[in-house]
Specification:
Blueprint (H helix, E strand, L loop, with lengths): L7 H22 L6 H13 L4 E5 L2 H11 L7 E4 L6 H8 L3 E4 L22 E5 L10 H10 L5 E3 L7 E2 L6 E2 L6 E5 L13 E5 L2 H10 L21 H34 L22 E4 L3 H10 L29 H9 E4 L7 H16 L1
Parallel strand pairs: 2-3, 2-4, 5-8
Antiparallel strand pairs: 1-9, 6-7, 8-9, 10-11
Bound molecules: pyridoxal-5'-phosphate.
Pyridoxal-5'-phosphate binds next to helix 3 and helix 4.
């Protein structure tokens, strides 16, 4: 049975008419740049993530870049982050002439290890940027505590975690709303994906919200008067219109992903595979939204090849930790610096987890993995 890693076709069928209608409305009013749909989506996303303000931008990468710019981070500055993430996290820091300073991850959650952060704080440190990897929040209580003691801002790279919750049941906090900035991506493979590139910044600080909204239009305010230098990075009206339709379904979709994750956990257990693969670990009381369901095994590459031959799509997020990327050679890191991140890069494998995945498909994925280990 063919099981793709992600099947956007299945999702689109359910919402086709509404999406086309939303697109038609934009086509009719023709306010293609920062039209009313952008403002509406900003309000909706702010509410969805429990933040006071939201600013629509051109991508998740630009959300990170603009957040750093709003904090005046530039040459000579350092930002502490994880080496086990998508490149944009660190790339945005470097683009501004600042230096990403990496610390290792927690072995189980794959998120930045708070206990490793403090030792890397210097007089040059200007921010801490945790990533909520795969859809589960990093340990924000510990990170915010360190940040507060050192008076450092926190930028949450929440590109994979819109709607994820962190903390004790009585006061669950939403991904993106805990730090000074939260950055979302609407890349098609995220839980809330648009029809191209898109992103959003959320914040609870009115001044920072205003600063980012000025920076996204070349630093222009009032129009054609520039007190700061920004860039052109706006969320398209068309994308915002599509995203508003999809946002209504996001809670249900993420719930389905969570159900699929539970079903996988049970099936792997029933097959007796728990000694051979490691399942995703959810921190107590966290609400993981499973942008990815990631297992690990030392036989990862052989398993991936085996599954590929069976028509089962998988992906490696991420094969090379950032401190070992060629472009970061000059930062002077070497193999062995971050053993947990390096081992994860060799052992992790993302399985299909999209909301429309059927029970039969999940059974087929699990039996194929069983077959691999028993042959
Ligand atoms: C997707 C992603 C980004 C970048 O988002 P784009 O919209 O593709 O620019 C940044 N960080 C992480 C962790 C991501 O997964």
């Amino acid at each position: 049975m063919e099981v793709p890693l992600l099947d956007l076709q299945a999702q689109y069928k359910d919402i086709e008419q509404q999406v086309l209608q939303a697109i038609r409305e934009v086509y009719e009013h023709k306010l293609f740049v920062l039209g009313p749909e952008v403002k509406r989506l900003e309000q909706e996303i702010a509410a969805y993530s429990n933040a006071d303000y939201a600013v629509g931008v051109a991508s998740g990468s630009d959300a990170i870049l603009l957040s750093l710019m709003a904090l005046d981070i530039g040459p000579g500055d350092e930002v502490i982050t994880t080496p086990y993430t998508f490149f944009a996290t660190a790339g945005s820091i470097s683009r501004l002439g600042a230096t990403p300073v990496f610390v290792d991850i927690d072995e189980q959650s794959y998120n930045i290890s708070p206990s490793a952060i403090e030792a890397k704080i210097t007089s040059k440190t200007k921010a801490i940027m945790p990533v909520h990897l795969y859809g589960q929040c990093a340990d924000m209580d510990a990170i915010l505590d360190i940040a507060a003691r050192h008076k450092l801002p926190v930028i949450e790279d929440a590109a994979q975690a819109i709607g994820a919750e962190y903390g004790k049941a009585a006061a669950n906090k939403k991904a993106g709303s805990m730090g000074d900035f939260g950055c979302f991506s609407f890349f098609p493979s995220k839980n809330l994906g648009c029809m191209g590139d898109g992103g959003m910044i959320v914040t609870n600080d009115a001044d920072l919200a205003q600063k980012t909204s000025i920076l996204r239009v070349h630093g222009s305010k009032p129009k054609y008067y520039h007190r700061v230098i920004g860039l052109n990075s706006r969320l398209d009206t068309l994308q915002a219109a599509v995203l508003s339709v999809k946002l209504k379904y996001l809670g249900g979709w993420s719930e389905k992903r969570r159900k699929n994750a539970e079903a996988y956990n049970k099936l792997f257990k029933a097959k007796g595979l728990l000694g051979l693969i490691t399942l995703p670990f959810t921190e107590y009381n966290n609400k993981h939204i499973y942008n990815q369901y990631v297992i690990r095994t030392p036989k990862r590459d052989q398993l991936r090849e085996f599954l590929q031959e069976k028509g089962i799509g998988t992906e490696i997020y991420y094969p090379i930790p950032l401190h070992l990327q060629e472009c970061y050679h000059q930062l002077g890191y070497s193999e062995g610096d971050f053993p947990h991140a390096e081992k994860a890069a060799q052992e992790t494998l993302a399985l299909p987890i999209y909301p429309e995945l059927t029970q039969k498909q999940q059974q087929s994925v699990v039996s194929s993995i069983g077959e691999f280990f028993n042959s």
